[in-house]
Amino acid sequence: MRSSQAGADAHAALGKPAVSSCILTTVRGWRFPKPPSGPATGIYAISFQ
Predict the structure, then answer these.
(1) Which of 3, 17, 24, 33 is 20 to 30 A removed from 43 (C-alpha atoms)?
(2) Can you give the pLDDT at residue 41?
């Protein structure tokens, strides 16, 4: 999923643009160790209750 699509989905799902913008800013700053086999792409589902 492209970053712009993820942002649109988050805004629509939460219905609170300020909250979804805050979450997206934080998540986009996450960094993970590089895997030894080369570049990788991950998908993470986040659920709020």
Answers:
(1) 17
(2) 84
Question: Quick check: is 23 in a domain?
Answer: yes
- Structural domains counted in the chain: 1
Instruction: Show the tokens assigned to 45.
Output: 């589902």
Residue 11 is part of which domain span? 1-32
Q: State the DSSP string of 7-47.
A: HHHHHHHHS-HHHHHHHHHHHHT---PPPTTS---------
> At a CB cut-off of 8 Å and minimum separation 6, what does 28 contact?
3
How high is the mean pLDDT of the chain?
77
Q: Residue 37: its pLDDT value, please?
A: 92
Is residue 48 helix, strand or coil? Answer: coil
